Amino acid sequence: MTPGRRSSTFTRLLRHGFTDASAAERLLDSPELAPVRDDPFLLEALGATADPDLALHGLVRLVEAQSGHTARQELLDTLIAAKPLRDRLLGVLGASAALADHLARHPRDWEALVTYEPRDLHPGVAEFERGLAEATDPISLRVAYRRCLLSIAARDVCGTTDVAQTAAELADLATATLRAALALAEKAAPEDAAVCRLAVIAMGKCGGHELNYVSDVDVIFVGEAADGADESKALRSATKLASHMMRICSETTVEGSIWPVDANLRPEGRNGPLVRTLSSHVAYYQRWAKTWEFQALLKARPVAGDLDLGAEYVAALDPLVWKAAERDNFVVDVQKMRRRVVENIPAAEIDRELKLGPGGLRDVEFAVQLLQLVHGRADASLRSGTTLDALQALAAGGYVGRADALQLDDAYRFLRSMEHRIQLYRLRRTHLVPEDEADLRRLGRSLGLRTDPVNELIREWKRHTGVVRRLHEKLFYRPLLDAVAQLAPGEARLSAEAARERLEALGYTDPAAALRHLEALASGVTRKAAIQRTLLPVLLGWFADSADPDAGLLNFRKVSDALGKTPWYLRLLRDEGAAAENLARVLSAGRLAPDLLMRAPEAVALLGDGDSSGLEPRGRAHLEQEILAAVGRAENAEDGVRAARGVRRRELFRTAAADIVDSYGTETKPAEADQGALVDRVGAAVSDLTAATLAGTLRAVVREGWGDTLPTRFAMIGMGRFGGHELGYGSDADVVFVHEPREGVDDREAAEAANKVVAEMRRLLQVPSADPPLLIDTDLRPEGKSGPLVRTLKSYEAYYRRWSLVWESQALLRAELVAGDEDLGRRFIELVDPLRYPAEGLGDEAVREIRRLKARMESERLPRGADPKLHTKLGPGGLSDVEWTVQLLQLRHGWAEPALRTTRTREALAAAQAVGLLGAEEAGILDEAWVLATRVRNAVMLVRGRAGDTFPSESRELAAVGRYLGYGDGHAGDMLDAYRRTARRARAVVDELFYGA
Question: Taking the model in full, what pTM does it have?
Answer without folding.
Answer: 0.77
